[in-house]
């Protein structure tokens, strides 16, 4: 659901304010340190209940304030507005949906799926597997309800098995968790492999805008245990080593995927800007798949899209977003920029010293 308005209090350097948005493209310009990224961060915190900047949300509380509050009105198809809010006092997070406390923070994510395109984007290629697993899990949480159940059950059994390994329990006490892990772990694997296969089809079509021979792009999925073994067998075979190491070394908690282009790792085969486009392409692919499977459009937060991208490529990204009916929040030092090409820019704002004013 698109954001119709956002009320901000006590967040980073931003003044207390209420902003109304367009369901299309919203642009925020301003000098360094004006508060543009903080504004995107506020929207991100509402959708994901965490920040892309700080590991603790306490740091986002404005200096000298005791808490922050973010309240958005989400626009349903019927034009009815659904209020959602999140507040943070040091160490304490509260979320409300439609006037009621949210049962789970993930309920916020279900209401408005967010995609972040900004700093640390390259981490999806350069960092270790956790970010890539998060990408898979996040995508599947939104399209497959049975996935959430299997994921939670797997995590619970894995924790118990690892606790038993740390406590140097007997092989029998450790293996008691294997049955559940195998049942759920194999489900996770089937869903992940299928999901990534679908994402790849979208990705190749999208990347056709950005690179030659996009069909030479390959996504290689690793499930976390040997490809030629059943998970139960792999777990049994690793028991001895697991007991030595004190944790479970095999399973979907080790899954990963990598990209190749023309048979080479993408960090060698693609330029830095092309790698950024690949990650944006992946996010566009995820949002397209989500829309096709659930009819739910995504929100995109673009922080300085122009960094590393030429104007033509920025235009192509914006065209894709327009085709997806995504609500877009974009920042740049100056406007008009390439973000304006689609003719879909509906609202422009200027940010200065934490104050946001609409440019008319
Ligand atoms: N908890 C906080 N309370 C008050 N101010 C903060 C807090 N956290 C960060 N700031 C300040 O907020 C300012 C705005 O930062 P922000 O990253 O939003 O700017 P920006 O407009 O995106 O700049 P740039 O174009 O340089 O990326 C910075 O000067 C930062 O020091």
From TrEMBL:
A GO cellular component annotation in the UniProt record: cytoplasm
Single GO molecular function: ATP binding
Pfam families: SMC_N
Binding of ATP, residues: 30-37
Annotated RecF/RecN/SMC N-terminal domain residues: 3-353
Function: The RecF protein is involved in DNA metabolism; it is required for DNA replication and normal SOS inducibility. RecF binds preferentially to single-stranded, linear DNA. It also seems to bind ATP.
Family: Belongs to the RecF family.
PANTHER family recorded: DNA REPLICATION AND REPAIR PROTEIN RECF
NCBIfam families per UniProt: recf (TIGR00611)
Protein name listed in UniProt: DNA replication and repair protein RecF
Gene that encodes it: recF
């Amino acid at each position: 659901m698109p954001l119709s308005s956002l009320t901000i209090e006590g967040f980073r350097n931003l003044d207390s304010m209420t902003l109304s948005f367009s369901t299309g493209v919203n642009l925020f310009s301003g000098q360094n340190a004006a508060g543009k990224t903080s504004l995107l961060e506020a929207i991100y915190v509402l959708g994901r209940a965490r920040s892309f900047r700080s590991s603790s949300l306490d740091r986002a509380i404005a200096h000298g304030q005791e808490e922050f509050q973010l309240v958005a009105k989400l626009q349903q198809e019927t034009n009815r507005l659904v209020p959602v809010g999140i507040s943070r006092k040091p160490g304490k997070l509260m979320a409300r949906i439609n006037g009621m406390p949210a049962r789970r923070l993930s309920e916020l994510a279900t209401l408005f799926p967010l995609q972040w395109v900004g700093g640390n984007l390259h981490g999806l290629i350069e960092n270790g597997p956790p970010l890539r697993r998060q990408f898979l899990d996040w995508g599947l949480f939104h399209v497959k309800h049975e996935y959430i159940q299997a994921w939670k059950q797997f995590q619970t059994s894995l924790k118990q098995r690892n606790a038993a390994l740390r406590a140097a329990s007997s092989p029998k006490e450790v293996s008691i968790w294997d049955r559940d892990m195998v049942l759920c772990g194999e489900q996770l694997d089937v869903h992940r492999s299928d999901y990534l296969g679908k994402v790849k089809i979208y990705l190749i079509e999208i990347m056709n805008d950005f690179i030659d021979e996009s069909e030479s792009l390959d996504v290689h999925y690793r499930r976390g245990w040997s490809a030629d073994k059943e998970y139960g067998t792999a777990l049994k075979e690793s028991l001895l080593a697991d007991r030595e190491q004190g944790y479970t070394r095999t399973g979907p908690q080790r899954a990963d995927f990598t990209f190749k282009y023309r048979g080479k790792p993408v960090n060698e085969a693609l330029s830095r800007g092309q790698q950024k486009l690949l990650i944006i392409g992946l996010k566009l692919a995820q949002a397209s798949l989500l829309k096709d499977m659930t009819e739910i459009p995504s929100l995109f937060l673009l922080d300085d899209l122009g960094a590393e991208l030429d104007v033509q490529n920025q235009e192509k990204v914006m065209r894709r977003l327009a085709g997806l009916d995504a609500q877009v929040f974009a920042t740049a030092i100056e406007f008009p920029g390439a973000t304006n090409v689609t003719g879909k820019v509906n609202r422009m704002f200027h940010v200065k010293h934490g104050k946001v004013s609409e440019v008319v």
